Each structure stands twice: as C-alpha cells, then as structure tokens.
Amino acid sequence: MDALGINKNTANLAVWLLLLTMPFWLPAIGGYIELGERVVVLGLAAMSLNFLLGYTGVLSFGHAAYFGLGAYGAGMTIRYLVPSTGLGIVVGTLAGTIAAALIGPLIVRLRGVYFAMVTIAFGQVFYFIAFRWNSVTGGDDGLTGWTRMPLNLGFTTIDILHNSRAFYYLILVIFAISVGVMAWLLRSPFGRTLIAIRENERRARFLGVPVDQHIWMSWVISCCFVSVAGALHALLNNFVDPRALYWTQSGDFVIMAVLGGMRSFWGPLIGAAIFVVLQDYLSSQTENWMSFVGLFFVLVVLFFPRGILGAIRRRVAS
Amino acid sequence: MTQLILFNVFNGLIVGAFYALMALGLSLILNLSGVINFAHGGFLALGGYIAFTLMPFIGFWGALIVAPIATAMLGIVVERVLIRRLYGRDPLYSLLLTFGLAFMFEDGTRFIWGAQSLPFQVPSVLVTPLSSDYFFLTGYRLFMVFIVAVAVIGLFLILTYTKLGIRIRAGTLDLETVSVLGVNVRMLRSMNFGLGVYLAGLAGVLAVGQLGLQPTIGSSLIMPSFVAIIVGGLGSLPGTLLGGLLIGVASGVTTVFFPSATEAVIYVMMAAVLLVRPRGLLGEEGRF
C-alpha cells in the first residue's frame, strides 16, 4: 500500500488497462488516436527525463537535444539509408545515446543550476546543426519526403502507416519495454544508489559510492530512452523539424514531469497527458496559445509544485 | 581580406558586447538569488518595444534613458509578485517560472506590437559611415560600443563604491551573514533584480537599433548569454564580460572562414572550456 491508499499493483494495472484500451475509449470521449499516440510518446520522454530529474535529483534542462537526435536519426535512416522502421528506431536511439555518453563526462561534475545551464546550452549545438545543414536535414523546413515503413516481422508484415491502431500498439509495446527496463533499474541496487545520491550526495560519497560515475550512467540511460521517444515522435509525424531540438522543448518535458509529480513513477505520464491535451485544445482555440502555456507554467509552479500525484498524496496523508 | 577579417572581428566585438551586457544582468541575478532568469530575453525585447513606443514623444535620446528604467520597474514588479516566492526552493521552480514568463513575454509583445519586424529609426547623426575604407564603422556601431562600455564601467563602479553594490557583492558570498548584519535582504534582491533587468532593457534599446524590432529577438540572444556566463565562469562578473566578448569575436571570425558554423562555434568553445577548466575561465573553485 502506498500513500494513495491504493495498492501499487492495482495502480499499475489501472494504468496499463487504460493504455491498452485507449484506441477504443479515446474517440468516444472526443479525442482522436493520434492524440493518444502523442501522449504515450511524450509521456515516455517525460518519464525518461524523470529517471534523472526525479530519481537521481539532477536538474537537466537539455533533454530536447537527445529527443531530437533520436527523431533525426530515425527520419534520416529511413530517408537515406534503409526504408525500415525498426532500423530507424535503433539508429535514432543509438545517435541520442552516443551523443549523451560523449557529452556526459563534461557535465557530470556540475550540479544544480550550473548543470541545467550547461545541458541547455549544449542542446543548442544540435539545433544549429539541424537548422544549418540544409542539404541533409532540410534545415528550417524540416526533414520531409519519407514515411514510416510497414513493419516486417518475418512471418507477417504490419502496415503501421495506414492502420493507426497497429501503430498505436507498436508505440505501446516499445513504451512498455522502455518503462519496464527503467522500473527494473530503479528497483535494482543501482537504482537505490541513485536515490541515495538524490537524498544526500555527500553521504553517498562518504559511503564509497562513485557518484560521478552513477550520475553519468543515469544521464546516459535517461537520454537513451528519451531518444527512443524522439524516434517514435518522428515516426508519428512522418516529419522532423529543428524545433524538436529547441530548448523550449526541454522545458515542456520538465513541466510534464513536475506537473504529474516527480516523485512518482507514473506522474510524468499523467503530466504529459494533461499537457498534450491542453496544448491541443489551446492551439485550436487561440493564436496566442503560447501565452496560455506560459501562464500554465507559472500556475503549476505556484500552486502544484509537488505535482498532481504529490498533491493527492498529501491530501490523503493528512 | 584584411578588411573582411577586421570587419568581422569588429562585428563580433559588437555582438559580444551585447551578449556581455545581457549576460552581466543574468549573472547578477544568478549570483545573488540563484535564479536563472529565462525571461531575460523577454525583458530585452520589451526594452526595445517600449523605446519604439516612446520615441515619437520623447525622441531617441529620451527613449534610451527612459525605456531601460521602465523595463527595470517592470522587472521589480515581476520579482516582487512572482519570483520572490521561490527563493530558497529548488532552483528547478524558478527556472520553470521564468521559462513560462519568457513564453508570455514573447507572445505578449507579438500580441501588442504584431509579429512583423518593425523599423527602428536611430538619429541620422549616428548612421553615417565615418570612413569610406572602413564602411562598417558607422556611427551607430561605435555609439553602441560606447554605451555598452559606459554601462559596464557604471555597473562596476556601482558594485565597488555604493552601499547597494557592496551589499550585493557581500550577499553573493554569504547572504545569511548579510541578513544577520541587518540588511533588508528582500529589498536587496529586488534592487539587484531591477539592476539586472535594467541592463537587459538597455541592451534591448541598442539591439533594436541595429537589428530591428522582432518579438523573437530576446529568445535568440539568451542562449549565447548563457554560454558567455559558462565560458567566463559562474559567479564572476569580470568573467562574464570576458566570456561575452570572447564568444562574440569567435563567432565573428568564424563567419569569415566557415559561415555555417557561426552559431555552433560558441558551443564548441564552451565544451573546450568545460573540458579544461570546468569552473570557467575566471570562475572560483568549488562555488558550483
């Protein structure tokens, strides 16, 4: 039993049931399936960020870079190399993970606001490369002229381009694997060590934990799954543009994690759902949706700093 | 060729002076209050737009004086109403709050003044080229450098000789002790925030004279300012100044040889500095 008064297994079961049945109930309440796909993909990005932000206590504000690298990796593989969706996802993930692994040593010793500033500034390099390298990335117009390819499983081929339900379940399978790995890691001694670092870094250091190494690993794992989400995002839109790499995108991921609740495993997914639906609604209603999104940031910080799950937990506890 | 290089070095120096002016404001706020002010670019744009609006009434020179002050007042209001609540909390929250504010500012200026680029007339005295060989030496460019220099010298004089400045520097080192000694820390933080935003507003007025008015002018200038702070060293204002000028000149020189890397080069510089000297060129050991 956790503080919500609900058994953890019941909560997990409820989340998975909702996700599994989404294509059936979402259209009935006025949504459309692409919205659900976006929630799952951005939810994965926010949950991956939270691996670092919520469970290791390291403030990264530059995750859009690895999200975007995943997206460009997937898109460019399908456009230029091999028309294979599976390979696109693999290449995208590798691109983001390798970049993160290389940048990691430069930043693992930094903490707090300094870490945030450096991660966000590094993200901009990739933005400018995507923006400037017109001939390959399509520059400001984005990478077009490709679509996600039918999934060849050997014994059968699934058309994920036109069958949106099939594509949703492909996303969900990848989401489940990623989230499962993260949950397993967090329950392992390694994950417990990360939480120890979050709670008291100095003490962890005195106990002989190689803190920088752990933060590097947490950073790479987090960026790896965020690039998986990026690759899926590219497939979802059949399009990538430099804005996927821009620093404002990183802010969106952070607000999703904070809004849902950084200290809970599913929190960022809930935050992503609220954010995606809200943005979808606002951008259809008003040209000035940016102001409202900005206002939303301010309100979340002032009134929901612990996130929705955190607020509910407090209420139940008191 | 020499002329081209000189032109771009000079250009870089001007751009660097802007980055430095903006980064100094950011640095002031960051050092004393631990807040990364993402809305700084928004304040910069606002400074420019306020100057644009006031110009028909008080002229360029009046706007140059009044607009930054008006921006600073607005900054103080924002600090008192919103940012003050977040001191002492995880820096994550002030980061997200100012991030949201940056969105609101950019969209707000677009809403009020429109998305199109507006022309900003500077006095004709300042636009004539001073020499036919060095065509790029227009009066306005020299004037910008002059104003930035005056502002920077003024800032360092304030920090060295006035009571406010001494308290800001002391607070940067140990805010608790300053508070115990009877200084009103809330007030100090407000004034400091206002001072930082004043510099952003001033940079805004100068920038729109060169680049024209666009709602996005702020968000395109804020990232280089971050890099300037990191390269120069967190916690050091002379470092920030040096960092701004360095990255400006570096991107200017890169324009000559490899134009498409103009923006990326400053991030490469940042990576190099972090690799060799993680605290930045003039940063103190162990502060961050």
In short:
By secondary structure, chain A is an all-alpha fold. Chain A contains 14 helices and two strands.
Characterization of the model:
The complex is a heterodimer of chains A (318) and B (288). The mean pLDDT of chain A is 88. By secondary structure, chain A is an all-alpha fold. The radius of gyration of chain A is 19 Å and the shape is globular. Chain A has helices at 8-25, 33-53, 64-81, 85-107, 112-132, 134-137, 164-187, 189-199, 201-206, 211-237, 247-260, 267-285, 289-303, 307-317; strands spanning 151-152, 157-158. In chain A, helix 3 (64-81) runs parallel beside helix 5 (112-132) and helix 4 runs antiparallel to helix 10 (211-237). Chain B is an all-alpha fold and 288 residues long. Chain B has helices at residues 2-33, 40-81, 91-113, 124-127, 139-161, 163-173, 175-180, 185-211, 217-232, 237-257, 264-276. Chain B is globular and about 60 Å long. Chain B is built from 11 helices and no strands. In chain B, helix 5 (139-161) crosses helix 6. The model of chain B has no long low-confidence stretch (mean pLDDT 87).
Write the layout of secondary structure elements.
The complex is a heterodimer of chains A (318) and B (288).
Chain A: H1 8-25, H2 33-53, H3 64-81, H4 85-107, H5 112-132, H6 134-137, E1 151-152, E2 157-158, H7 164-187, H8 189-199, H9 201-206, H10 211-237, H11 247-260, H12 267-285, H13 289-303, H14 307-317
Antiparallel strand pairs in A: 1-2
Helix pairs in contact in A: 2-7, 2-10, 2-11, 2-12, 3-4, 3-5, 3-10, 4-10, 7-8, 7-10, 8-10, 11-12, 11-14, 12-13
Chain B: H1 2-33, H2 40-81, H3 91-113, H4 124-127, H5 139-161, H6 163-173, H7 175-180, H8 185-211, H9 217-232, H10 237-257, H11 264-276
Helix pairs in contact in B: 1-5, 1-8, 1-9, 1-10, 2-3, 2-8, 2-9, 5-6, 5-8, 6-8, 9-10, 9-11, 10-11
pLDDT average of chain A, as an integer? Answer: 88
- How big is the Rg of chain A? 19 Å
Secondary-structure-based class of chain A equals mainly alpha
Shape of chain A: globular
Helix fraction bin of chain B = over 70%
